[in-house]
Design goal:
By secondary structure, the protein is of the alpha+beta class. The protein has two helices and four strands.
Length: about 150
């Protein structure tokens, strides 16, 4: 039996086996890379959501200040021109008999990959000294979207 023939067959099978193992390792490395990228995206969403919430809360407070300022000037309709503010009732009667203006405010906060929308019902009461007092009756988070 010639010495070269079994050795040549062995070299060919070793090449096929090495190629198959290389393909398997390449597939496992790419799957691990995709999984890592997915986990980083999820972690980014979790850190962006609180920032979006803070931005929505700040926008809500700004809109409430605009309602108070408009009431101090005696022109509640001016606040409605601002984005997201609706005057529900200019002559709202409270349980104690006082009259007030009732506003519905929608504000949105955004971060890089998250958005939060909040709504508020805000009551503004005119004071005798020409000022105005306001209070948030209720609020809710409307939607939480990721993009």
């Amino acid at each position: 039996m010639p010495v070269g023939q079994p050795l040549a067959r062995q070299r060919g099978s070793a090449l096929c086996l090495t190629l198959a193992l290389s393909c398997l390792l390449l597939y496992l490395a790419s799957a691990a890379s995709r999984e890592s990228a997915s986990m980083q995206r999820i972690a980014g969403l979790q850190s962006d959501r609180p920032r979006a919430w803070l931005a929505a809360d700040a926008a809500l407070r700004d809109a409430e200040r605009a309602c108070l300022q408009a009431a101090r000037l005696g022109n509640e309709g001016a606040a409605v021109d601002s984005s997201g503010i609706v005057l529900l009732d200019k002559d709202f009667r409270q349980a104690n008999g006082e009259r007030a203006s009732l506003f519905h405010i929608t504000a949105q906060g955004r971060a890089r990959r998250a958005a939060v929308t909040v709504q508020s019902w805000f009551l503004v009461t005119a004071m005798a000294n020409g000022g105005a007092a306001g209070r948030r009756i209720a609020w809710r988070e409307v939607e939480d979207e990721a993009f």
